[in-house]
Design a protein that fits this description.
The chain is α+β, with helices and mostly antiparallel strands. The chain folds into 2 domains: 2-36, no CATH class; 48-98. 18% of the residues lie in helices and 44% in strands. The strands form 3 sheets. The chain has a 3-stranded antiparallel sheet with strand order 6-5-7, covered by helices on one side. It is elongated and about 60 Å long. The two termini are 54 Å apart.
Length: 101
């Protein structure tokens, strides 16, 4: 049995099996009867960005017509293509491309 300090609140003595998942991820310093959290991690930085490609089938298979950076802009663009070219099939593909630094 140990006393557990969680977020500044002293919990009653609990057995090791009943310690919450959040406390299990922390390091327990039994000598001081306190819980210390892990060191701060660096925030995640994306290495890719989303690109929404519009492909059209003009009789020789699908080929890329244009691309947009947001889903909403791509949906608006594909709607415009479908309204202006009724005999051509269009589809939308999401690709991840490396961020250009």
């Amino acid at each position: 049995m140990i006393d557990v300090l969680v977020h500044g609140v002293v919990m009653d003595t609990v057995s090791n099996q009943l310690i919450a998942d959040e406390v299990k991820r922390c390091y327990i310093n039994i000598g001081w009867k306190s819980v210390t959290t892990r060191p701060h991690r660096k925030p995640y930085v994306r290495k890719t960005e989303d690109e929404f490609q519009i492909h059209g089938d003009y009789g020789q298979g699908f080929e890329e017509v244009t691309c947009e950076t947001t889903w909403r802009a791509a949906k608006d663009t594909i709607k415009t293509y479908r309204d202006n070219e009724p005999g051509v099939q269009f589809k939308l593909k999401k690709k991840r491309v490396p961020i250009q630094a």
